[in-house]
Amino acid sequence: MKLSPRRLREFVIERLIFLSGIASIVFVLLIFVFLLREGVSVLKTASLGEFLGGHLWYPISAPPRLGILPLILGSLLVTAGAVVIAVPLGIAAAFYIAEVAPKRLRPVLKSFVEVLSAIPSVVLGFIGITILVPFLKSLLNLPTGLTAFSGSLMLAFMALPTIITISEDAINAVPREYRDGALALGATHWQTLRRVIIHGALPGIIAAAMLGIGRVFGETMAVMMVTGNAAVIPHSLFEPVRTLTATIAAEMGEAAKGSPHYFALFAVGIVLFIISFAINLTADLLLNRGRKK
Amino acid sequence: MERKEARVPVWKTLAAFLAAGSLAFSAVSCGGKRAGSGGAAALQIKGSDTMVNLGQAWAEAYNKLHPEINVAVTGGGSGTGIAAILNGTCDIAESSRDLEEKEIQQAEEAGTVVHETIVALDGIVVVVHPSNPVSALTMDQLREIFMGNVKRWSAFGGENRPIVLLSREVNSGTHIFFKEHVLRRGKSKGPEEFAPAALMMPSSYAIAEETARNENAIGYYGLGYISPRQKVLSVSRDDRSPAVPPKIETVRSGAYPISRPLYFFTRGGPSGTVKDILDFVLSPEGQEIVRATDFVPIR
To answer: Residue A115 is part of a domain; what is its CATH number?
Structure first.
């Protein structure tokens, strides 16, 4: 079969677009298979219960202790702290930008939010270690300022742009008629916001929060710099913690290939992957539900 | 009003994992163009964070003598450098510890011989906040502190404050040296570990920074990081020995109890440019750079 040059060109372009389209799916599957292949070998050294429930993380000792419970709890604690700070702040900021701020101020605010998202996390970490950490220590009279709370504050900054941008989109997507209808029925601006717009935008806002959580949970550099990285089960936000991400980043360079430590770090990667995946999937489902309504 | 696309696909986040994964891997290699024997272009030195400044000072001085050869020096930790020399992705590995058994095994499996040269000596200093009244500790006291058995400064005549332990991460040669030399009393294997509550700091800089700002802190790092912002402790071998401050003379004489050799590892016997650099490093001029960067010259 002979194709005309034009048909041939279209054929090639179509295939290329198809390839780009499925590339991300292929990548994800490959990553997961790769993680799984390297990570399951940790079960040769520690049982699943010892790995997920163990309290001690001494990966290079003989025999190694590979309990990641302190790391899981550390990640969850830092994330929870960041969410409590960033979600209300982010949603309030989104409402301000979308509904309250004067028209001329909006693009300015939006571009500053974008600048915030462009700050590299290592720079935030640097600010954290030189300014925030000593400040928190003296303010709260802590033994050290390198705590889960410092990490939460840094991460809240990083999650804010995601939460603000997506929430604002969700608010803007609420049909104009709802707003006009509410105002026409005599509702004040605040009542319209609180009773009408927030309802229409809620799934999007929740999704924004979930994506913010996902961003926070996977963040590494700033957290590693300000949380102290002590692998102990945390009892409060004001104690040092070690996160899953910081553990991989700090230790991967040293781990000898094929050692229990190496496999354990991949298994930590699997745990991280599964939790992040769950967070993002929830966000996606919520967004879709909001759209179909 | 036009509806904006608010959806960020799951895949986007997952693709970020790929990036993270590839970063983690590139950390083990130091890549780049390598110089064959006598070839021009770039030569890679990688490894110990303790030795990065020293390595860079050597590289700069060497580059002045041989402008045609560029030497790139990067850190990452001794283990990272050794992994890179075993993978063949760098020319010289800087290391603040000797090879481990498993690394010798890996080299054998790969069919290479790793050649070691001691290029300088380093003392590990124990530092506290300048306001801390404690000024000398014994090796046993250090052991008790870093294992978490003694938790308050008052036990050593200090104020009634909690002790905040600062340690390096496990990828640091300094971490391993301190554990084996102080906690395990010179044995490479043993049950002794840093207290789980010890803060694992990503760099010597981070330890220096936290020690300078936190009156509860105690940390350790190489002699080269000493600054007036921290107080350096004198250390005695046992109850009967005198407390010795870490200095070039006390490290070289062996009177200061926590010191170690610093190594260059190369693949096989050094030849060509690599040998030339080694000769330079060991020359009086190279050893003067050792002194200038606050390490201890070998001769």
So the answer is: 1.10.3720.10
Note whether residue A8 is domain-resident.
Answer: no
CB A248 within 8 A of CB A269: yes
**Biggest CA-to-CA distance, chain B:** 84
Asked if residue A63 has a cis previous peptide bond (ω within 30° of 0), the answer is yes
Residue that wins the pLDDT comparison between A265 and B293: A265
A285 to each of A214, A274, A289, B35, B75, how far by Cα in Å? 14, 16, 6, 54, 44
Residue A17 lies in a domain: no
Amino acid (1-letter code) at residue B74: T
Tell me the residue range of the domain where A202 lies. 52-292
Name the residue facing A27 among B6, B18, B162 (closest C-beta).
B18
- The average pLDDT across A220-245 equals 91
- Give the pTM: 0.75
Per-residue pLDDT tens digits for A156-173? 999 999 999 999 999 998
Query: Which chain B residue lies closest to A234 (C-alpha atoms)?
Result: B197
How far is B294 from chain A, CA to nearest CA, in Å? 25
Q: Which of B76, B77, B73 is nearest to B91 (CA)?
A: B73
Mean pLDDT computed over B143-148: 95
Residue A247: DSSP 8-state? H
Residue A42 has pLDDT above 50, yes or no: yes
Q: What is the pLDDT of residue B264?
A: 95
User: What per-residue confidence (pLDDT) applies to A151?
Assistant: 94
Residue B31 has pLDDT above 60, yes or no: no
A62 part of a folded domain? yes
Triad A91, A93, A94: Cα angle to 5°: 65
Q: Which residues contact B175 (CB under 8 A, 6 or more apart)?
A: B167, B168, B169, B194
Question: What secondary structure letter does DSSP report for A64?
Answer: -
Radius of gyration of chain B (CA): 22
Cα dihedral B118/B122/B124/B129 (nearest 10): -150
The residue count of chain B comes to: 299
Spatial CB neighbours of A118, under 8 Å, sequence gap ≥ 6: none
Amino acid B197 reads: A
User: Based on the structure, what is the number of domains in chain A?
Assistant: 1
Our CA angle for B298, B117, B180, nearest 5°, is: 80
Say if residues B294 and B123 touch (Cβ distance below 8 Å). no
A117 in reach of chain B (CB within 8 A): no
B196 has a chain A CB within 8 A of its CB? yes
Q: Determine contact: A204 vs chain B, CB below 8 A.
A: yes
For the segment B50-107, what is each residue's pLDDT rounded down to a tens digit? 888 899 999 999 999 998 888 999 888 888 899 899 888 899 999 988 888 888 888 8
Q: Please say whether the beta carbons of A222 and A235 come within 8 A.
A: no
Summarised one tens digit per residue, pLDDT across range B36-49 is: 444 445 899 999 88
Q: Does any domain span residue A26?
A: no
Find the CB nearest A253 among B1, B8, B171.
B171
